[in-house]
Amino acid sequence: MADPLDSLPPKVAEALRRGDKIGAIKLLREVARVGLAEAKTAIDAANRSSQVRKPAAAAPSSHTPHSPPHQTRAVSPLYSPGLSPGEVPRRSSGIGFVFLLIVAAIAIGLFWKLA
To answer: Which residue, 7, 11, 16, 64, has fewest beta-carbon neighbours within 10 Å?
Structure first.
């Protein structure tokens, strides 16, 4: 029985043997000039019909095949936990509010004095 991976281009078959399904789809799209759906269907079919396994010599990994490896991300000085993306943190000081109350009190006092 022929290996279904033999019908794929060599680089695509090698990527699929390594377990890099997304890389195999990208390579197939590039080499065969097909769309995403066609490439995905072809890779899925080849993957289902062959017994593709990762080499036993591969180093054990701390992450599951479907979870990305742990990556540290740069923390922005604007990042605050609990904020939605794009949400600007509020200032915690009430100095502006106090200043506004003082100005309003002076304005009301002047208004009453002149009236």
So the answer is: 64
